[in-house]
Specification:
single chain, alpha/beta, TIM Barrel, globular, 16 helices, 2 domains, 7-stranded mixed β-sheet, Urease, subunit C, domain 1
């Protein structure tokens, strides 16, 4: 049995434990409580032990895309990324994904729900030990587009295990018809999609006009209405579906998301940097929508830094509602751990520190932060944490990152070379 202890243990499902410890054996937690009862084991000074972040919406293969097209509106921004993406081969995409996995582990992330364009994210997660559901992306007008899914599945299947599994991602209602969504649902595996992210998207879906009209040849015909209602009527939405963004949703659409049990992956940094707006997080939570906090990808946000995402979520929610209790630090941490686990259907296994669950654990030191000495360990983690302060990240009790002891120099160098090729004229 292994025991880790620290100044504080934050289980998420219970109050913080001062001078706490977590014991685990064979990859699963056996006990959580005071160190005086469980033993000190390996002691982390000036630190907090908490469940690893569950980042339920990422694009690991875009780890090297940061800053491309900064300041462009949504439609030309997507066009730029599509053009540059085609300069990479599968080996490049695996290299990018490995760099993304490394960054996630360094940020205290132990699980991702990753939307994968090439399928290479599965191999990267398997090789570096990150838990994942890898959603293979499809695009098209009808069920024939599932031939792409089969191609990606065949590429990824060798990396599938108890820790890395597969889902499907019909990309968005402007690149996939309802018929294709229905075909994806018939596969009987988890679904992730992008939904109601920008005003231009909604205008195209409703009228076929607006800024996206110039890209119509690359898109499916408009629905003539908003996508939430159309997907709900088709029976697509449900507990096994993650809808990323949902920045522009009406009260009626929020009610549909709640009634169907669909999870919204809230990505505030991405939405802000692309000028899409601020999602109505408080309204969704008050209506009973299942919500999690996720990073999206460095294509639209600076990093896989979940601490920065948490701070942005807290600040944007409070600013939108003009009240400081619109999102507490405790609620934000729950959305980024157990909330993400619920989104992926893994909350019985991960997302909190409880006996019987997987020992997916992050340790962060606050010794050099303004939040030390302690007043509130949860606020300290959310408002003062950073990847540089993460001491260790464990998945199923196995150490996958240790500050000062784990390096990915070769992976980082290869990812930088792939990025350089994307920048070639």
């Amino acid at each position: 049995m292994t025991v880790l202890s620290a100044d504080w243990v934050v289980p998420v499902t219970g109050p913080p434990i001062q001078n706490g410890a977590v014991a685990f054996d064979d990859g699963r937690i056996t006990a959580v409580g005071p160190a005086v009862d469980l033993g000190a084991g390996e002691r982390f000074e000036d630190a907090v032990i908490f469940p690893g972040f569950v980042n339920a919406h990422s694009h690991l293969e875009y780890a090297g895309y940061a800053g491309f097209g900064d300041g462009l509106s949504f439609a030309p921004w997507i066009g730029l990324h599509v053009a540059r993406k085609h300069r990479l081969d599968h080996a490049d995409m695996k290299t990018m994904a490995r760099s993304g996995v490394a960054e996630c582990l360094r940020s205290g992330i132990t699980t991702v729900g990753d939307c994968s364009y090439s399928g290479m994210a599965a191999a990267a997660c398997d090789e570096l030990g990150l838990r994942a559901i890898v959603y293979l992306e499809v695009f098209g007008a009808d069920a024939s587009a599932l031939s792409r899914f089969e191609e990606l599945r065949n590429r990824a299947i060798g990396s599938v295990s108890d820790r890395v599994t597969l889902g499907v991602s019909p990309h968005a209602p402007y690149t996939c018809t309802v018929e294709l969504y229905e075909a994806c649902a018939e596969l009987g595996i988890p679904i992730a999609t992008h939904l109601s992210e920008s005003e231009a998207e909604l205008e195209y879906l409703r009228t076929g006009g607006g800024p996206w009209e110039a890209f119509a040849a690359l898109l499916v015909p408009p629905l003539g209405r908003g996508a939430v209602g159309a997907l709900a009527e088709a029976g697509i939405l449900g507990p096994s579906v993650i809808a990323a963004h949902c920045v522009y949703v009406t009260d009626e659409e929020i009610a549909l998301l709640a009634a169907t049990g669909t999870t919204v992956a809230h990505c505030p940094r991405s939405n802000a940097l692309l000028g899409c707006g601020v999602a109505p997080l408080a309204a969704m939570r008050e209506a009973g929508v299942r919500v999690c906090i996720a990073t999206d990808s460095p294509a639209s946000t600076p990093s896989f830094d979940m601490f920065d995402e948490l701070r942005t979520a807290v600040m944007s929610a409070r600013a939108r509602e003009r009240r400081p209790d619109a999102l507490t630090t405790g609620a934000a941490l729950e959305l980024a751990t157990l909330g993400g686990a619920r989104a992926l259907g893994l909350d019985a296994e991960i997302g909190s520190l409880e006996p019987g669950k997987q020992a997916d654990i992050a340790v962060v030191s606050l010794s050099d932060s303004p939040f030390f000495p302690w007043e509130d360990p949860v606020a300290a983690v959310v408002l003062g944490g950073s990847p540089d302060r993460v001491v260790a990240t464990l998945v199923s009790g196995e150490e996958r990152y240790r500050r000062g002891g784990t390096t990915w120099h070769a992976s980082t160098s290869s990812a930088q070379q792939a990025r350089a090729r994307m920048l070639e004229a």
